[in-house]
Amino acid sequence: MFFLFYYLLLLCTFAESHTYTDQPKPEKNGQELLLCRKCGTDIADSYYLFSKSSPGAQKVEKQNLFGRQNVTVQSLVNPFGVKFEIVTIEKTRCKIIGSPQGADSWFPGYTWRICACPHCGQHLGWVFESTEDGNIAEPQRQSFHGLILSNILGENFTDSLIMMPKMYKM
């Protein structure tokens, strides 16, 4: 009986370790992973957060988020009056939807497209792609992402939600 149980356990472990993913998992560079708030899919590594200011930001503040200090959080409003708090990040695993849009871009010199969770399709933010040729006087990033703060969360936050209280630990 013990051997049957052991065999089933081994079989389940093997099946779990060989699941198919169509995109590679984000690298973890000693920082916290960012997750889709809806389904928990790994979206990015906080190592790639950076500050890219928008001239259209209503409010810009520094916060300690995702294991990093002084992360720039910007409050931006779209043409329909919907307010978003975003963080900018160099790379993500977002699924990019639609064709580049130049109208109403919060970042001059960049077009935007919707960035969605590759697993559940939740709108996570936007990818901004440069429209300008390589200007030597003022080099800019070819692309970056603006993630909506309310649609993502850090892995350490989720770990704290499912931790067993100390009084129940054996």
TrEMBL record:
TM region(s), chain numbering: none
Record-given protein name: CULT domain-containing protein
Any Pfam family hit: Yippee-Mis18
Native source organism of the sequence: Loxostege sticticalis
Domain CULT: 31-156
Signal peptide: 1-19
PROSITE patterns: CULT
Lineage: Eukaryota, Metazoa, Ecdysozoa, Arthropoda, Hexapoda
Gene Ontology terms, MF aspect: metal ion binding
Keywords: Metal-binding, Signal, Zinc
